[in-house]
Amino acid sequence: MTTEFVIFWGQQTVKTAIIITAPILLGGMLVGLIVGILQSVTQIQELTLTFIPKMAAVILVILLLMPWMLEVLTDFAAQVFSQMSVVAH
Fold first, then answer.
1. Whole-angstrom Cα distance, residue 47 to residue 51?
2. What is the pLDDT of residues 15-60, one digit of tens each?
3. Dihedral of CA 34/39/40/45: which sign?
4. Phi, psi dihedral angles at 45 (to 5 degrees)
């Protein structure tokens, strides 16, 4: 196992994590931004008002993208397990 091998798989792991989490984080951020703008316009400063829409958006994004996320994770796991013989030697 070489240094390049470890760096490559470290990069692949971070890349996969970003690919999986980016849509969830962007969905929550977008809803939070919209709710924040609406709160500023209407001058309603209720902290719980931002929490529920963001939570709903995150859950919705997870439910909608779950098949795709599982496919990405399954492909990554298959690649990792196919390289186990390299790690063992």
1. 7
2. 999 999 999 999 999 999 999 999 999 988 888 888 999 999 999 9
3. negative
4. -115, 65
- Is this model's pTM higher than 0.90 or not? no
Residue 72: DSSP 8-state: H
Count the Cβ atoms, other than its own, within 10 Å of residue 33: 11
Nearest CA among 4, 23, 6, 3 for reference residue 72: 23
The tally of CA atoms less than 13 A away on the side-chain side of residue 31 is 18
Going by C-beta distance under 8 Å and a sequence separation of 6 or more, which residues neighbour residue 7?
A: none
Q: What residues contact residue 31 under an 8 Å CB cut-off, 6+ apart?
A: 53, 54, 56, 57
Only one residue has tokens 């890349």, namely 15
Distance in angstroms (rounded) separating the CA atoms of residues 28 and 23: 9
